[in-house]
Design goal:
The protein is built from 4 helices and 23 strands. By secondary structure, it is α+β, with helices and mostly antiparallel strands. The protein has 3 domains: 81 residues, conserved putative lor/sdh protein from methanococcus maripaludis s2 fold, CATH 2.40.420; 92 residues, Elongation Factor Tu (Ef-tu), domain 3; 148 residues, Orthogonal Bundle (Helix Hairpins), CATH 1.10.287. The protein has a 6-stranded antiparallel beta barrel. Strands 3-16-21-20 form a 4-stranded antiparallel beta sheet, with no helix packed on it. The chain has a 4-stranded antiparallel beta sheet with strand order 8-7-5-10, with no helix packed on it. Helix 2 runs antiparallel to helix 4. The longest helix is centred in the middle third of the chain and has 68 residues. It starts with a helix and ends with a strand.
Length: 444
C-alpha cells in the first residue's frame, strides 16, 4: 500500500519539476525576446564626388586699415572732452576743446587792425582819384588829349603868340628897309618896332604861362604817383592784417582738436583741466582706428608664391565666428622673398561693414586658387563630433557602421571628407546620437 503511495508521490514530483522547468524556459525565451536591439529610423544621403575650389591656407592677425595718434596743434588747457574708449567718431568731429579765450582776443585785435587797414586803403584810393582829376584838368588846360605828350610849341596860346610875333618881326624888318629908303617916316617905323616888341613880350608871356601849366601837370602827376604808392602801401597793410587774422583764426580753430579719420577710439589719454602741448611726450590725447576695412598680412611659403597674385579673393575665418566666412581680396604683394624665412609677404583687405571683426584678432585665411579639384562630399548633418573625433555612420545591409573621418572644406551644406568614406556610400543624416556602430536602422 505504501509502495503505491510512494510511486504516486514520485510521479507527482517529477511532473512538478517538468512543469517548473518548462515555465523557466518560457520566461527565459521571453526575456531574450525583450533584449533584442531596437531599430533606429534614419534618413540617408550618398557621398558624392564634386569639384570644389582649392585653397592655400595661412594664419595671421587682423590689423586696422588705418591707425593714428591724435595730438593738438597748439598748447593749452583742456576745457572739454567729447569722446571715450570705444566711441565711434566721424572725420572732423571735435574730440577735445582747449581754453580759447586768449586766442579769441588775438583774433579780435587782428580783425580790428584789418578793418583799419581797409579804411586806409579807401582813403588812399580817394586821394588817387582826386589827384587823377587834378592831372586831367591840368592837361585839359594845355589842350592835351589822352596819351598826348607835351610840346610847348603846340599849345594854342603859344602858337598864336608865335604867329603874331613872326608877323610883327616881318613888319619891323620891312619897315626898317623902307625907313632907310625914306619911304616911311620915323614915327611909323617906331610904331612897327613897338608892335614887334609887344608881340615878343606876348609870346614870352604865353611861353611862361604854358610852362607854368605844364609844371602843374607835373605836380598833379607826382600827386597821382604818391597817392598810388599810398594805395599800394595800404593794400600791403591790409594783406598783412589779413594774414594776422588768418593766423589768429587758425589759433582759434586749433583750440578744437578734430578727428583726422573716421573710426573707433582705442585709447584715451585726455582729461578736463590737463595742460597739453605739441611735440612733448604727453601730447597724445587719443588713438583712432579705422575698422571699416581690416588688413591681414600673410606669409606665403616660397614654393607657393606662383599661386598668389594681387586681386585674388580670400576667405577669412575667426574663432569668434567659426560658422562664418568673411570675404576679402589680396591688394598688395611684396616684391621680394624673405631671405631668412623664405616666405613672401602679401596683404589682404577684408571689408568689415558690420564691425564684427576686431583689429588684433587671430584669423585663418584661405586664398582661392583658380583650378578646382574633385572631392568626396557628404551633407554636413551627417558628421558627428565627439571631442576631437569626427565620424559618420555608413548604412549598409540595414546596419549603421561608424567610420572615423578626416574633414576638409565646407561648401554650403556639404563638407569634404578626405578619408573614411568613398563615393556612393550611404551616410545617415539624422538621429546620429541614437546610433552606435552596428545598430540596426530603417531608412525613411
Amino acid at each position: 500500500m505504501r509502495s503505491r503511495r510512494t510511486i504516486a508521490f514520485i510521479a507527482l514530483l517529477a511532473l512538478t519539476t517538468v512543469f517548473a522547468e518548462a515555465c523557466r524556459k518560457s520566461d527565459g525565451a521571453e526575456s531574450n525576446a525583450n533584449k533584442q536591439p531596437p531599430i533606429v529610423d534614419v534618413t540617408a544621403a550618398p557621398a558624392v564626388v564634386q569639384p570644389i575650389p582649392t585653397y592655400f591656407e595661412a594664419t595671421g592677425n587682423l590689423a586696422s586699415d588705418e591707425q593714428t595718434d591724435v595730438a593738438p596743434a597748439v598748447a593749452g588747457k583742456i576745457a572739454q572732452v567729447n569722446f571715450d574708449v570705444g566711441s565711434f567718431v566721424q572725420k572732423g568731429d571735435v574730440l577735445v576743446r582747449l581754453d580759447d579765450r586768449d586766442a579769441r582776443i588775438r583774433l579780435e585785435q587782428a580783425t580790428s587792425q584789418e578793418q583799419q587797414s581797409e579804411a586806409a586803403v579807401g582813403q588812399a584810393q580817394a586821394q588817387v582819384e582826386q589827384a587823377r582829376a587834378n592831372l586831367e584838368a591840368a592837361r585839359a588846360q594845355l589842350g592835351l588829349g589822352p596819351g598826348e605828350k607835351f610840346v610847348i610849341g603846340d599849345v594854342a596860346e603859344v602858337r598864336n603868340a608865335k604867329a603874331a610875333l613872326d608877323l610883327a618881326e616881318a613888319e619891323y624888318t620891312r619897315n626898317s628897309k623902307l625907313l632907310e629908303t625914306g619911304d616911311i617916316s620915323r614915327s611909323i617905323f617906331d610904331q612897327r618896332r613897338a608892335a614887334r616888341d609887344q608881340a615878343r613880350s606876348a609870346y614870352q608871356t604865353a611861353l611862361n604861362s604854358a610852362k607854368q601849366r605844364y609844371a602843374a601837370t607835373i605836380t598833379a602827376q607826382a600827386q597821382v604817383t604818391t597817392a598810388e604808392a599810398a594805395v599800394r602801401a595800404a593794400q600791403s597793410a591790409v594783406k598783412a592784417a589779413q594774414s594776422q587774422v588768418a593766423s589768429a583764426q587758425k589759433g582759434v580753430n586749433d583750440q578744437a582738436v578734430l578727428a583726422p579719420i573716421t573710426g573707433y577710439v582705442s585709447e584715451r589719454v585726455a582729461n578736463v583741466g590737463q595742460y597739453i602741448a605739441p611735440n612733448t611726450p604727453n601730447s597724445k590725447i587719443a588713438t583712432l582706428m579705422k575698422t571699416s576695412t581690416l588688413r591681414m598680412k600673410i606669409d606665403v611659403p616660397e614654393q607657393s608664391i606662383g599661386k598668389i597674385a594681387s586681386g585674388q579673393s580670400v576667405s577669412v575665418q575667426t574663432t569668434a565666428y567659426p560658422d562664418r566666412n568673411f570675404a576679402g581680396t589680396i591688394v598688395r604683394v611684396s616684391p621680394s622673398v624673405s631671405t631668412t624665412a623664405r616666405t613672401l609677404t602679401v596683404e589682404a583687405e577684408v571689408p568689415n561693414t558690420e564691425g564684427l571683426l576686431k583689429p588684433g584678432q587671430f584669423a585663418t585665411v584661405r586664398i582661392s586658387q583658380s583650378k578646382p579639384e574633385p572631392a568626396v562630399m557628404v551633407p554636413a548633418s551627417a558628421v558627428r563630433t565627439d571631442g576631437d573625433n569626427n565620424s559618420v555612420f555608413v548604412i549598409k545591409d540595414g546596419a549603421a557602421h561608424q567610420k572615423l573621418v578626416q574633414l576638409g572644406s565646407t561648401e554650403g551644406d556639404m563638407i569634404q571628407v578626405r578619408q573614411g568614406v568613398v563615393e556612393g556610400d550611404m551616410v545617415a543624416t539624422n538621429n546620429l546620437n541614437a546610433l552606435t556602430d552596428g545598430a540596426l536602422v530603417r531608412q525613411q
